[in-house]
Amino acid sequence: MHFNEPLLQYAMYGLLAAVVSVAGAIDLRTRRIPNILTFPAMAAFVLLHWIMGGTQGLIFSLAGLFAGLSVLIAAYVMKFMGAGDVKLMAAVGACLGVPALLTVFLLTSIAGGVHFSLILFIRRFRATLAPPPGSSDKAPKEHAALRMCYGLSIAVGTLATMAMRLLDMQYIKF
Question: Is residue 172 part of a domain?
């Protein structure tokens, strides 16, 4: 964060923690992250940074927002994730900025890999217990079914990054 006021940092982190936690829970339940959550979050973080840091805060937040959009847009275009995931990462970037976003992305990728591995393991385990009849007919649907709810992974990566910062650990440098 570009400001030094600890109380403001905690407030921003609290708001972001609430946003990503709610988004992760909704995504797991409905396989969607609603715009009513992501767009106001993006606007609030940009506005708060602008109010607290002037033009420099505005640029910090907008750079993070566009970086957040950029890191997941290819996966969205290839239909591996939904637009809500991309917008949630943009909201995270608008709050934390580009330097922290790189750490969020790395930790989110690790959490996503673990999540996806668990999904594959559970499906494999279920298939060995009772293979579904006519499983060859389900092959085209399998790709769509493998599109995971990435909101939970974004929440884990974001919360871990904020915890690192609150514990005075440095962001991962690339």
Answer: no
